[in-house]
Amino acid sequence: MESKIGRRLSSLEAELLPAGEPVGSGVLARVGRLEEILEGAPGNSELGLARRLENLEVLVFGAEGAEGTAEAEPQEEFEDLGPELGEPLKEPSGPPPKRLKPSPVPAPAQPPSRPTRPRRGAPAVQHPGHVDLQAYARSFGLNDDAIRTLHELPPESLAYVQQNFEPREGTKNISALFISFARKSHFSRTGQQLGRQSAQERAQGLLDEFAQRWELNSDAVAWLQMIDDQLALEEVVASFHPSPGTTNISAKLIGFAKSVYWRNTGKQLMDPRQWHYG
C-alpha cells in the first residue's frame, strides 16, 4: 500500500516531470529532484522531509492545495526513512576527526632552456673582422675627399689604416690628416702611390686577390665582375667577412654583393647569366 508521502510525491511528479520519465527509487532523491526543478538546487535537509514536501506543494498547488503542515504529519510516516528525514541533526560527540594534510603536488617540469635571442631591432653584433666603411667614416666625421681615399685603399692597407689611425685630441682637420696618413701607410706597405693605378686595374687586382682569399667559385667571381661601381666593389671586398662555419662562401658572397650594390647605387645588380645569354 502506498504511503501518504508516496502519494504526495506522485502528485508532484505528475505535475513537474514529463510523461513517461522514470522517477527515482529513494524518497530523498525524489524530493531533491523536484526541488532542483523548482528552485534550482536541493532544499535544506535540516527542515525535515514533511516541511520540504509542504514547500513543494505550496509552489505547485498553492497554499490551499498543500495537504498539511509538518506538525500534522504522523510520526509513523517517517519511521522507515531514518532519523535524518524527520528529526533535527544531532551534534557529533567525541573529538573532531583529524584532517588529512594534502600531499604536496610536485612542481611541473620546466622545459629545457633555450638560447636567448637578441631583441628585435637591437643592433647586430659585428664579427671582429667586419669592416663598416660608412660607420668608420662617420666616427671621425670624414669629408668627401677623405671618404674617397678610404675607399681607394686596398684591403691590406685599409686594415692597417683602420687599426692605426688615431688622431690626437684637438686636431682641427681630421680629414686632411686621414688622407695624409692613408697615403703614407699605403706607400710604405706597397711601394705604390695611392690612386696612381687606373680604376680598372685596381678593380681587377681587388677581384683576383679577393677570389683567391675566399676560394670563390666561378659564379661568385662572375657576380663580382658585374659590379660597375668602384666604391661598391671596394666595400664588398673590404667588408665581406662570413661567420665561422659558413658552408657555402660563394653563395654568401653573392647575396652580400647584391645588398652592397643596391645600397650604394639604388639599382639591382645584373645577373651575369642574363648578361651573357639575355
Describe it.
The protein has 278 residues and is an all-alpha fold. It has 13 helices and no strands.
Summarize the structure.
With 278 residues, the protein is mostly helical.
Which features would summarize this protein structure in a list?
278 residues, mainly alpha, 13 helices, 52% helix, 0% strand
Cα gyration radius (Å): 48 Å
The count of domains is: 3
Q: Could you describe the largest sheet, including whether it forms a barrel?
A: none
Find the count of extended strands (DSSP E, 2+ residues): 0
Distance between the termini: 108 Å
Which structural class do the helices and strands define? mainly alpha
Describe the SSE topology.
Blueprint: H1 4-16, H2 27-39, H3 49-61, H4 83-86, H5 133-140, H6 144-152, H7 155-164, H8 174-190, H9 199-214, H10 218-225, H11 230-239, H12 249-265, H13 272-277
